[in-house]
User: What shape does this take?
Amino acid sequence: MKQWLRRTAVAGLTAVLLVSCLPLALAAEPERALTRGETASILLEAAKDYNEKVTYEGILKGYPGGDLNEEGLVTRAQALVMLQRAFGGLPEPKGDNARSGYPAANFTDIPAWAKEELKSVLASGIVAGTSATTFSPDQKITGKQLDLFLRRTYALEGSNLKDDFYATVNKQTLDNSVIPPGYLGVSAFTEVGIRVDKELTGVIQELVNGGATTEGEKMIVNFYRSILDIEGRNQAGITPIQPYLTAIDRADSLEALMAAHNRIYKELGVPLLLGFSLSIDAKDSSKYILIFDGVVPALGQGGYAAATKEQKSAYLTYMSTLLQLLGQKESAASAGAKMIWDSESKLAAASLTNQELADVEKTYNIYTMKQLKEMFPGIDLEKLFALSGLSQTDKIQVMDPGRLKAWASIFQDPHGLELLKTYCRRNLATAFGGTLNEEFGKATQTFNQAYLGIAGTPTKEEEASQLVQQYMSGYLSRAYADRFFTAEAKADVERMVKEILSVYRQRLQGLEWMSQPTKEKALLKLDTMKINIGYPDSWEEPKVKVEIPSGREDGSFFKNVVALTKGSLTLLPELQKEGVPEELWPFNTYTANAAYLFADNSITFPAAILQKPFYDVNASYEENLGKIGYVIAHEITHAFDNNGAKYDENGNAADWWTKEDYAAYQKLCNKVVSLYDGREAAPGISCSGGLTLSENIADLGAAACLTEIESRQASPDYAALYTAMAEIWCSSYPRETRLYLAQADVHAPDKLRGSLVLQNFPAFYEAFGITEQDGMWLAPEDRVVIW
Assistant: This one.
């Protein structure tokens, strides 16, 4: 070791700099290739808490004959062999590490001298090849690359809070994690969701077994039975939608296709290509505004350019299968699937990103009917609008003009008719295929397995229960709150919300980067924020009034879904006339989620989320504060994130900032982007700081507020608080799902929400004795606290 330190000094590096940056290897020069001696010393320091027998000589054994060649540049194979020596071999990945790491590969270029020692490294999932069969053992390794290998190793070990807090706190849960059949992953949210599903399934079964007395309860029973009439659905096949498929097939002009389109819209309640609807007016939140839109790419804005070969193949197969189930031959279906992929890729490229879609400045684009007609010159938009039943105004919002213009170009393409017909077929299948024969469901399950890694399927009864919850929420929401949510829990959470709001107010008042005029506006917004906890203060009867008859002929699953869909559409004209209600509840009481609504300046926490593991009346103060408190403070902060900051206390898009304050805020936002950008939560899958900015601001604001609250306790227990915050974000997903979420989800990976957030607060370092030499160290100049 002493010999190594002397040589780094000669090379122009100080030993102090190197040691102080460990394990962030040579952070001052992250792209510089490392020597063998540097690599051995870095690994010696990094592994000392994991392997008490580690020595410099045991890591760097040199060449035959004893030459260590310490100043030679280290190769990929050498560095990874030295890594496994330093840690005494790498553990076999289990649970989350097994499903989210790099898949095993059969490399053909592993050198003979390294084969045995690389076995545990290659099996660990922390490293990938440069191709499916190529390892590229002779590539040189930089400090940045070695740092990544070390961080992945810390996560795999999960035994040192100071190196990987999240992995260590959640070690047992992550290693033993099992994703239930048919689920995307497992987390606190899915834990609650599964429990709620079981509770509601019990309620439904009581009704099915003779407990239904009201008309609404009888509708639930009839709807549930229609879902489970698999035999009848299979016998009917695609017969219920055959007349519409025939109309689409026979369309030999754009006019004929739009006639078929409008017929489907009128009779089934679903516009397949273009449609008008309502949304709360961002500039006047007391009213609804007309919305006009076309097809949205199914895989999202980033799902095409970033797709792997396997993902693209899965999607093409799925589209082709759907078209074949509608009666097309395999060759025609395959061609149609390719057309959809190519077309949606272009639409995606012209679309706003998921983060931009939350930015009112980018989505509040007002058009007149005349302008829309000019965009779609061959379409009778007046006839289409008349089917909506809405009152026409000369103020129509287009959320994503770039995408809509790209969509409009297809209507003007002389060769676009076949593509539009293919879209109609596909959209009819995705809208109603699940109500028809089992083959549609199987096709979706196959796609989910290949694209997202979702294994298995729920039972037919579980699936039926979930569909009842989806379509009959108006009848189930109150039943859930009455049976499974207590007044005690509601009162306790209300007290916590008030405590958090009080501290949040004081933090706003103390902001050094914001001037007093802007503070007054921010405080006004906070003070007028509406709070919805558990269930609405008053219950309304479900507004969708339809009949759900019994019997296979009159009450098929398909017919029932059509009735409910059309029933929902009939409410739109009434909503347009009456305006936005004063009390808005964005969720059912049994939804395991929470939200802040820009347009209502309100936070909502449904009954379902106010239970274990988020909230427990018997848990410690710190445990509840770090779990449900995190969620509460997170939603409050959304009022002031980069998107919420553009709305005032009334939920209207308005500029309440001074120019100087907003510029200061933007600088802080940019720092948050840099903090998160490129951070890994699974090997080779990085976070986008820009995509996740709004949610990261909300997480950081929550952690700052909770840390402040804990500091005011008689005996602050930061360790318990931060441990609870890491535990509540413990989750596991297949690697395929993580790849998808990395380009689609505006939330950072859960690991970052339960670890990187904490690294911005001095109390975290003090609570666990974390220093500059530990993996969890974040340099003070890189830490960000905004709210």
